[in-house]
């Protein structure tokens, strides 16, 4: 038995000294320590020895097993270190480089589908005299709610509707109230009406935030575009005509859409505009909300210093992702933020 142990140890050390790959280390581990390996075979032989000799040889074999495993682990560390040094030296890539292979094509990127949609929307509104306005994503409670006829205690003021900031940030207009991430782009309309005299004809695109449950048609971050027209003699007919022109230019002259009475605290009367979304089979039709709109509430005009007895106006707003869902029959809004290259290529032909 002693001779067998010595032969086993000698052959093991010679074999691990010759290995240079991790796969070879694993092969030796299986050969000597696997279920049917050399070491377990010797353990079985000890069970066949006389009872009084078993403890002595069992102890020697276990000590040998510990030495061999330790040597195997040390050699494995050495092999990994040698492999890492070889790769970091740069010789590995040079050694396996094949100059006869064709070059890899360099793909040129393109604009995100949302950016493409915004560009198209800007062009349509530009044709009918609208200007482009922007505002900060961090806003005050006053510009978000009070100025828009949403007093304290109104359900829209619930902290669950948006994200409030604990840090103190000083806004340029020094508007009062706690600071928050805007849940809509309506504060841009407030800022414009405070600083510009009518007539006003503007659109305000931007990113918005709400504490919504994320599903196929809702997200905590989304893009919105709002529009505002203020002038003398503006009526509901102007609102309806503007939106019909815009959506048919955007989504096609055959677009099916409808106006439904609704409630918004900053407009009176208020409406929602729905667009028809067809199923993949083209049979079932689902009405998806495209736009909220209405005539500007007189209290909003008073809050920004515009006389509602002289001026009237209308406002509207919609989500950019909602428009893309209708235009391209996209079933899930989350696809626009998951960065799936297949989806982006599909909506951006020049990708």
TrEMBL record:
Catalytic activity from the UniProt record: tRNA(Phe) + L-phenylalanine + ATP = L-phenylalanyl-tRNA(Phe) + AMP + diphosphate + H(+)
Pfam families to which the protein is assigned, alphabetical: Phe_tRNA-synt_N, tRNA-synt_2d
Keywords, comma-separated and alphabetical: Aminoacyl-tRNA synthetase, ATP-binding, Cytoplasm, Ligase, Magnesium, Metal-binding, Nucleotide-binding, Protein biosynthesis
Recorded coiled-coil stretches: none
CDD domains named in the record: PheRS_alpha_core
Chain sites annotated for binding Mg(2+): 268
InterPro entries according to UniProt: aa-tRNA-synth_II, aa-tRNA-synth_II/BPL/LPL, Phe-tRNA-synth_IIc_asu, Phe-tRNA_ligase_II_N, Phe_tRNA_ligase_alpha1_bac, Phenylalanyl-tRNA_Synthase, tRNA-bd_arm
Quaternary structure and interacting proteins, as annotated: Tetramer of two alpha and two beta subunits.
Protein name from the UniProt record: Phenylalanine--tRNA ligase alpha subunit
Name of the gene encoding the protein in the UniProt record: pheS
């Amino acid at each position: 038995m002693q001779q067998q142990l010595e032969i086993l140890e000698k052959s093991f050390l010679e074999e691990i000294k010759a290995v240079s790959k991790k796969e070879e280390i694993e092969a030796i581990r299986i050969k000597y320590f696997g279920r049917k390996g050399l070491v377990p075979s010797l353990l079985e032989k000890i069970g066949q020895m006389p009872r009084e000799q078993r403890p002595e040889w069992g102890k020697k074999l276990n000590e040998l097993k510990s030495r061999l495993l330790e040597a195997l682990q040390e050699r494995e560390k050495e092999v990994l270190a040698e492999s890492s040094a070889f790769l970091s030296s740069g010789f590995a890539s040079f050694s396996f480089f094949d100059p006869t292979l064709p070059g890899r094509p360099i793909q040129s990127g393109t604009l995100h589908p949302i950016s493409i949609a915004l560009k198209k929307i800007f062009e349509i509104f530009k044709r009918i005299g609208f200007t482009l306005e922007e505002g900060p994503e961090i806003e005050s409670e006053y510009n978000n709610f009070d100025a828009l006829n949403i007093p304290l205690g109104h359900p829209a003021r619930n902290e669950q509707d948006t994200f409030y900031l604990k840090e103190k940030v000083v806004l340029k207009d020094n508007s009062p109230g706690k600071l928050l991430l805007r849940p809509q782009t309506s504060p841009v309309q407030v800022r414009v009406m405070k600083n510009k005299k009518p007539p006003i004809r503007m659109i305000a695109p931007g990113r918005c935030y709400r504490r919504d449950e994320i599903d196929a048609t809702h997200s905590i971050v989304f893009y919105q575009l709002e529009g505002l027209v203020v002038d003398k003699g503006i009526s509901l007919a102007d609102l309806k005509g503007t939106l019909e022109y815009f959506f048919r230019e955007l989504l096609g002259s055959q677009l099916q859409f409808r106006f439904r009475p609704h409630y918004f605290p900053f407009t009176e009367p208020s409406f929602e505009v729905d667009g028809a979304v067809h199923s993949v089979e083209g049979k079932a039709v689902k009405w998806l909300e495209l736009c909220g709109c209405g005539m500007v509430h007189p209290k909003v005009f008073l809050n920004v210093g515009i006389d509602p007895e002289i001026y009237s106006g209308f406002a509207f707003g919609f989500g950019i992702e909602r428009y893309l869902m209708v235009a391209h029959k996209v079933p899930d809004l989350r696809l626009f933020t998951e960065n799936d290259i297949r989806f982006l290529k599909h909506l951006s032909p020049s990708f």
